[in-house]
Fold:
Amino acid sequence: MALAGGCRCGACRYELDYDSIPATYACHCLDCQKMTGSGFSEHAMIPADRFRIEGDVVQWDHPNSQRKVTSQRFCAVCKTRLYSSNEGRPGVVIVRMGTLDESTQIVPLVHLWVKRKQTWIGLPAGAETFEEGIPAERAKEIIAANFS
Structure:
C-alpha cells in the first residue's frame, strides 16, 4: 500500500512507498511561514526512491542557511509547493506533508525553529522542540526511521 498526495488543482499526484505516515516534523522558521502563508510547514525527509510523482513541476533553486542549494518543486499549474531536495542530503526528498491526502493523520515528531513560532500556536504537552534547526544527530535518527 502506498500513501498518496498532490497539489490543490490535481495536476500533480504523488505516492510515498509507506504503509503509514513517515516521521514528520513541523518547521516554524520564517522561510516556511513565508512559503506557506501560514504559521508552519510539515515535512518528511524520505529516500528519493520511495517517492514517485506524476505531472509537470517547476523548480526554484536557492541557497539555504548552510550555503547548500535547495531545489523547491511546485505544481506547474497551481504552484502548490510539493517537495524539495538539498545538495547537502543526496538521495533524500523533503515532502510537504500538508499535501498528503490523509494529512489529518499527521502528528509531527518534532517542532523546529520554535523561537519563530507564532504566539497563537500551541504545541502539545511534551512535544520535542528545538529553538532553531534540528541537531545533526537527531536529523539522522529521523531520516534513518524513514529509510527502514
Observations:
- The first strand starts at residue 3 and ends at 6.
- The chain is about 15% helix and 35% strand.
